[in-house]
Write a structure and sequence with these properties.
single chain; 24 strands; elongated
Length: about 270
């Protein structure tokens, strides 16, 4: 108890001291504290052009960590914008002249890149459906330049591959996130398909009943598949169990119910 009183007394004295200092200095201490906090949060972003266009904002600017900054690039006459480059930052869309950027560290430098409009090819990235792509617009691309492309699947679908003309060379046409290099105007497409699993329906091996369907069949991700258990004479259905993988049974106590697969192949068993 004595030690608690001692610590409480010290705390009260410190509080009184701070109040007295604040009353003497007015808002100085509070203002200094605010300045120190702002300095700790500030980051420095430098925005440059490669010389064939202008940027806004331009030069070195101070921003708060985590803030999203609007940036824009305007090409000179006879030039086109191609991309933003830089490290330690995250772009909203590095291939868009008007986009956003946020810093991952204390400092970063980004550059707007332009090219002679007669020296570029147009790259168009599209989805064939059931997913989206980035970039999603036609962008001017210098020959030999690797452009990052990304495919994002819709729910219950999966990416299959990229396709394009002979003028388009992919880093890996089976990867959602890859690169493409073009030698003339090119259209590349991302293909998607529904996720499928293998569902096996079986009885318990006792010979006391059957199932429908029986054996293994291909089912669609998230789709309910009707399953039915029929007991032999003098037997009753007991329950459904999942013996392999992961499956959602509509009602394990009903002989006629559904099975749904959302994460893997699975085997469900009727017990009698």
């Amino acid at each position: 108890m004595g030690r608690r009183i001692k610590y409480l007394t010290i705390a009260i004295v410190l509080i009184i001291f701070m109040v007295l200092m604040y009353s003497r200095c007015g808002n100085t201490l509070l203002e200094d504290l605010v300045v120190d906090v702002e300095r700790a949060l500030n980051t420095v972003l430098t925005i440059n052009s490669d010389g064939n266009g202008t940027v806004d904002p331009s030069g070195e600017i101070t921003v708060i960590t985590g803030d999203v900054v609007d940036i824009s690039a305007t090409p000179n006459s006879g030039y086109v914008f191609t991309s933003w480059t830089g490290t330690g930052i995250t772009f909203g869309n590095r291939y868009s002249a008007n986009t956003t950027v946020s810093l991952n560290g204390k400092t970063a430098t980004i550059t707007a890149n332009f090219a002679d409009e007669n020296s570029v090819f147009n790259l168009t990235v599209q989805s064939t459906g059931y997913g989206s792509v980035e970039p999603s617009e036609t962008i001017p691309t210098l020959p030999g330049t690797q452009v990052s492309i990304n495919a994002i699947s819709d729910y219950s679908y999966e990416f299959v591959n990229w396709t394009g003309p002979l003028s388009a060379s992919f880093g890996d046409d089976t990867s959602e996130n890859t690169t493409v290099t073009i030698t003339e105007n090119s259209l590349v497409q991302a293909h998607f398909d529904q996720i499928q699993y293998q569902l096996t329906v079986s009885d318990d091996g006792s010979g006391n009943g059957t199932t429908f369907p029986s054996g293994t069949q291909t089912v669609i991700f998230g789709a309910e598949t009707d399953i039915t258990a029929t007991p032999s004479e003098n037997y009753i259905f007991k329950e459904w169990t999942v013996t392999i993988g992961s499956a959602q049974i509509g009602n394990t106590d009903f002989a006629s119910t559904t099975a749904t697969l959302t994460s893997s192949d699975a085997t469900v068993q009727a017990n009698f």
